[in-house]
Design a protein that fits this description.
two-stranded parallel sheet, about 60% helix
Length: about 190
């Protein structure tokens, strides 16, 4: 019933309230659900002979909608044209390639207390992804009195610097980048 309800709400907004499709935003958790919504809304509008460009609607997963917002407003982000989106493996490999930058941080061995560059890269990924998703800024951690918290802040700061230097964005940062875009640019 969730999909049906969303479809009927979108149809109502377009047909009864005169809302333009490009002003409708529907977020789902899966690509499959997003495609189903698009198909049903398109079919419903066609059955009612109502012309509307469904491609203008913001329908998709949270991540796909955030990516669309970032692409449409890139000049207000830290990203530049032709940025690269890292998947899980790409993120770990990027850290692996730069592991020396992390190992040179004071207290690194106390926070990332496992052996092996790849294992350390995986642990760093876990930390930076969780911290990013909670909107924790490196400066907040660096200001802490606990040396391990400070080190986590330095790890996060180093990670963000590498992303910025290489025009990269990881999967966990998509929503965070979109959040800051919206907060800082009404």
């Amino acid at each position: 019933g969730k999909t049906y309800t969303l479809v009927q709400r979108a149809i109502y907004l377009i047909t009864e309230r005169g809302i333009a499709p490009e002003n409708i935003f529907i977020a789902t958790f899966t690509e499959k659900a997003a495609k189903e919504l698009i198909t049903r809304i398109t079919n419903e509008l066609a059955a009612k002979n109502i012309p509307a460009n469904i491609n203008e609607m913001y329908i998709g997963t949270f991540h796909s909608i955030c990516l669309r917002l970032l692409k449409e407003n890139m000049e207000y982000t830290r990203l530049h044209k032709n940025y690269r989106l890292l998947d899980d493996f790409g993120q770990k490999y990027m850290i692996f390639q730069n592991i020396h930058k992390f190992r040179n941080l004071t207290g690194f061995e106390n926070v990332i207390n496992i052996n092996g560059s790849w294992n350390q890269s995986e642990r760093i990924c876990n930390y930076v992804n969780n911290l990013a998703e909670e909107l924790v800024e490196p400066e907040m951690l660096i200001a802490d009195n606990d040396i391990e918290i400070k080190t986590l802040g330095q790890i996060l700061k180093t990670y963000k610097e590498i992303l910025a230097e290489n025009n990269l964005m990881d999967f966990s940062a998509i929503q965070v980048e979109a959040y800051w875009l919206l907060v800082n640019n009404p």
